[in-house]
Amino acid sequence: MPEALSYFFMSWVDPYLLFLTAAGTFAGIYIGAIPGLSVTMAVSILISFTFKWHVNEALALIAGIYLGGVYGGSRSAILLNIPGAPAAIATALDGYPLAKRGEAGTAIGLTTVVSVFGGFIGIAALAIGAPLLSNLALLFAPRDYLLLALWGILLVGSLSGESLAKGIFAGALGVLIGMIGLDPMTAEGRFTYGSVQLSAGIPYVAAMIGFFGVAEVLVQLHQLAITPVKQNVKKIIPSWGLLKKYLPLSLRSSVIGVFVGALPGAGGDIAALMAYDHAKRSTREPSRPFGEGAYEGIVAPETANNAAVPGEYIPMLTLGIPGDAVTAVIIGALYIHGLKPGPMLMIETPHLFWFCVGNLVLANLFLLPFGLSGIRIFAKIVETPKAILLPLILVLSAVGTYAIENNPVHVYWMLAFGVVGYVLKMYGFQVGPVILGIILGPLIDASYRRAMISAADTPLDFAAEFFTSPISAILVAALAFTVLSQSRVWTAFMGRLRSAPTH
Known about the structure:
mainly alpha; two-stranded antiparallel sheet
């Protein structure tokens, strides 16, 4: 226990780690708040600069940017009706009407406090739940990891996109990209076409920056003519009575955020939407009608999406499965630093877990003063013309990609994936499943082969084991339900169920 506490407070007593956490939180708030600068893109670019750092330094900065970025998206959602992050989509539904009523300051202040509250609930769940889940994960067989990886891709494809088919296609594309290179067992080239460059595989950091950074820049080019709305920000700090009134809703939304965040592939945006839906269903007398400036409509999603951040650390650290695109990038960073997220991480490097927990607590504490300050300045920064902002993003993306290995070919890959990501977005495909596929592709490949070897390369025995093992059977059921819930048959059935008369 004393050793765990020493690692917990490591970033608190080390001036450099303290500074990195504070700087990351501050930067994350403003990166997440400016439309076009997504949290995922920021973390992706950051990874390329930190892979030569000590792992503690990299994780301290990343934790700050992650927490700050998820919260920061609420600012532009409230002020401009443009979510700075996907997790702030639900916040805009009532946040912007509040701003039009002249209550932008109160709305931002309230979202700041409830975000910090949700973050602490999520961190407590991480500290308690992760060690328990890690012990359970030790019972997982290779086939279970295969199912987990497939479920993670299916979840993010089904929950974050307009169609399950498009989500599956995007995930399969990512897996295909992740397979490029030499076969780890036979050393034979896969999809290399005799190219030496392709033999080393696709640099996933370059792919991430391209899909999230360059693709977003190309999408934003369609909106250059949009003029930002100017807002007067007053009365920032919320009253105690207002906070006390929404404390029960914040607590329930935090539980939703932690649970959804812990699901592989779900993420804070799904948690926020589910919490918003819960608030609409459970609130009998809202402050105003939902969609017209109800405080409940900003409290629920903002509490949930910040509680989801520590929740997403649970599958990342204990199972090696990313909770969303950002944690997929963080997994990449851990691999760069020679660490392998999964059940053995808690056994071999327990200090890393407690360092992450302590660092998240510290970043969450910094979120309160940084979130309540600089709002008036932000109202000016967010008005930066896109003609200046977008070229700056491209330059930073190119520099970050080149810095991975000082290889200009990586920049070409980044630009190519940026164009591919742009085309996907234009046709309604999500890039999140692509990134998850790139990360999870090697895991799917390795787990499938190990499972086949354990079944003596007998397909019937291989298939039977998915139903004879309790863990495998549960995961198969989860996979089946994910696919079934997106089918027309299920939609028609649920529609009839809701319309059936009640006695």
